[in-house]
Amino acid sequence: MLEPGNNSELPPIPGKRYFTIGEVSELCGVKPHVLRYWEQEFPQLKPVKRRGNRRYYQRQDVLIIRQIRSLLYEEGFTIGGARQKLAGEEARSDHSQSQQIIRQIRTELEDILKLLRR
């Protein structure tokens, strides 16, 4: 498991539609019980629940979780402070998420280019 640190150390998000709680745990560097707790504390986190109450997170959820992780572990926010910051940023979140997706795609494309140049 990754220690609380920079989100740039986190693995790239695969191009899948849904992720299990275990996959999200590895992608975001937090344990599954922490993800379940954050679902209760942050109304923005609403994973799809299917048979047997299994959670399936979408790419947007993973980005929000990474943002929450950054606020709590790197910037030192409390849960309440992070909740307020996210609520205030909802209007600007589309732009921020677009930038994160663009950075992620760019990194993946650069990796592909490196492989092709070999």
Task: Tag the structure with descriptive keywords.
single chain; 118 residues; mainly alpha; Multidrug-efflux Transporter Regulator, Chain: A, Domain 2; two-stranded antiparallel ribbon; 2 strands; globular; disordered N terminus
Structural description of this entry:
The chain has 118 residues and is mainly alpha-helical. The chain has one domain (7-117): Multidrug-efflux Transporter Regulator, Chain: A, Domain 2 (Orthogonal Bundle), CATH 1.10.1660.10. Helices cover 59% and strands 5% of the residues. It contains five helices and two strands; from the N terminus they run H-H-E-E-H-H-H. The protein has helices at residues 21-28, 32-41, 59-74, 79-89, 93-117; strands at residues 48-50, 54-56. Strands 1-2 form a two-stranded antiparallel ribbon. Strand 1 and strand 2 (54-56) form a beta hairpin. It is globular. The chain starts with 20 loop residues before the first helix and ends with a helix. Mean pLDDT is 86; it is low at 1-6.
List the helices and strands and how they pair.
Blueprint: H1 21-28, H2 32-41, E1 48-50, E2 54-56, H3 59-74, H4 79-89, H5 93-117
Antiparallel strand pairs: 1-2
User: What's the CATH topology name?
Assistant: Multidrug-efflux Transporter Regulator, Chain: A, Domain 2
Shape: globular
Main beta sheet: strand number and arrangement? Answer: 2 strands, antiparallel
CATH class membership: Mainly Alpha
Runs with pLDDT <50, length 5+?
A: 1-6
Q: What is the averaged pLDDT score?
A: 86
Beta-strand percentage range: 5-15%
Number of strands: 2
CATH architecture: Orthogonal Bundle
Structural class: mainly alpha
> How many domain regions?
1
Count of helical segments?
5
The neighbouring-strand order within the major sheet is 1-2
> Which value, in Å, is the CA radius of gyration?
15 Å
Please estimate the helix content.
Answer: 55-70%
Distance between the terminal alpha carbons, to the nearest Å? 31 Å
Query: Could you spell the SSE succession in H and E letters?
Result: HHEEHHH
